[in-house]
Specification:
CATH class: Alpha Beta
Strand order of the largest sheet: 1-2-3-4-6-5
Number of helices: 4
Number of domains: 1
Order of helices and strands: HHEEEEHEEH
Shape: globular
Oligomer: single chain
Radius of gyration: 13 Å
Length: 128
């Protein structure tokens, strides 16, 4: 997670306290999530940037020492999309990649040479 002793209160504050390359990648992911779920409110949940449509947590993301993570906030979502996520490393409640998501998230929402971003957009729109 971001190396700060102070708990961030908003996503911009969280992003200010992480590495530059991670910040750029997570800003792209944030843009994708906002495009996919425009009515979702941004918040900090469990010390991670998160999005809540109708007060319910939908997705979150975070920066760690050697990777960035995307949290669908439901292990059922990961299970439902397991075939679509085969190119990602997953755990029971998250998916992650190497140092940054730069190769995973394209410049425009829904645009990616290998289709990964469109899969993230699909997950962001999914409400189990």
């Amino acid at each position: 997670m971001a190396s700060t002793n102070r708990k961030p209160k908003i996503i911009d504050e969280y992003l200010r306290n992480i590495k530059t390359d991670q910040r750029a990648a997570l800003e792209k992911l944030r843009k994708t999530i906002r495009s996919a779920a425009p009515k979702a409110q941004e918040c900090i949940s469990y010390r991670l940037p998160a999005f809540r449509p109708d007060g319910r947590s939908l997705v979150a993301f975070g920066a760690w020492a050697n990777h960035c993570s995307f949290y669908p906030m439901s292990s059922a979502t990961l299970k439902d999309f397991q075939d679509d996520l085969k190119d990602f490393q997953t755990r029971h409640d998250s998916l992650f990649t190497g140092q940054t998501l730069a190769g995973d998230v394209g410049e425009e929402a829904g645009q990616s040479a290998d289709g990964r971003e469109s899969r993230l957009t699909t997950i962001a729109n999914y409400a189990p």
